[in-house]
């Protein structure tokens, strides 16, 4: 992997950990309501981070066994604390790199990937590596967002510019913040069969103040706002313009505001054993 591929644009500080927790709690049903694995299944969770998705996976499939890995020691330590506090005994945490995984070919029944491909400059290559770990008939489940699907009221050019700045920063780091729309061709190109992709829309208005707080304010706006220093230092946008944009995004979380964002869930099957 290149240095750019190793760069997680959102950082690893406490603020980002809190944002991931807000995101997981606000869209858990949207992502996990129809994601479960049969008892006895061995499932690989790729890039588990601080364990925000790990807990939902373990809860939904208590009879399955999970191997959840990440390259960040600090994230893994936090994930381990979450798993231990939740009392789950069906999760094994490992430190590993996606492009140098220490797992045997055809050793997993299923693979789960959530918000990982967006940070890679070579997502197809990553998917090919993951396909090789699956037993014939095994499945991959991938979740990704798409910043191009962001709609809100009140409309704001300033907010659009702040979002665009974060998208550009991620692009310069080798990633793609709008990768959700490309899941179908990516999975097909990687060799998966029976690929199905479905949109998962988060719609927030004044009737859901809890979701406005957890998703609009503490997930999406916090994500954009969290790259402030990086986008300014990179010369992508001026400080005043960025701050105005983040302020406009926060405005959409008010009682008369509306915010809409689309995640995409992709599922594919391994049909031919290729080692």
Quick rundown:
The protein is α/β, with parallel strands linked by helices.
Tell me what the structure shows.
This protein has one domain: 3-Layer(aba) Sandwich (Rossmann fold). Helix 7 runs antiparallel to helix 9. The model is unreliable at 1-6 (pLDDT under 50). It is globular, with a radius of gyration of 18 Å. Helix 2 (52-60) links the parallel strand 1 and strand 2 (65-70). Strands 3-2-1-4-5-7-6 form a seven-stranded mixed beta sheet. It is built from nine helices and seven strands; from the N terminus they run αβαβαββαβααβαααβ. The chain has 275 residues and is of the alpha/beta class. The relative contact order is 0.17. The two termini are 21 Å apart. The longest helix is centred in the first third of the chain and has 19 residues, at 14-32. The chain has helices spanning 14-32, 52-60, 73-86, 123-131, 157-172, 183-189, 209-225, 228-233, 239-251; strands spanning 42-46, 65-70, 91-95, 108-114, 134-153, 193-204, 258-269.
- What is the total number of structural domains? 1
What can be said about the biggest beta sheet?
7 strands, mixed
Query: CATH topology, what is it called?
Result: Rossmann fold
CATH first level: Alpha Beta
Number of helices: 9
The strand line-up of the biggest sheet is: 3-2-1-4-5-7-6
Looking at how many chains there are and whether they match, the oligomeric state comes to: single chain
